[in-house]
Model the fold of this input.
Amino acid sequence: MFLIMARAATTSDPFNAVAEPRRRQILTFLAVGERQVGEIVAAIGLDQPSVSKHLGVLREVGLVHVRRNGRHRMYRTNAEAIRPLHEWTGSFERHWRHQLNRIKERAEEQMRSRSAAGLNASKEKP
Done:
């Protein structure tokens, strides 16, 4: 017998909100600075209603702030709300650093082997 657990709403926490790839794109675009909705639409390539919907979700979980600037709404990331995401992904940093170090060591070992083979081959030629 399987127990099916309901998935939390995307508006319940930042982790669920960023599960959607377009929202991650929007956050990445906003990481460089405050932007108008029109700029986000142009950069992401979605229609304005879709971008507004995604921004609404990101705003509801606190990942972005919005302010009015005349007739425009300006969006920017909320670094403090993103911190839990960063801290969680950081918990995997040790694993990836270890993996990258292993790759580096193998590549260096192969380079040394190739260099040694090249030197031996040149010594054998009269």
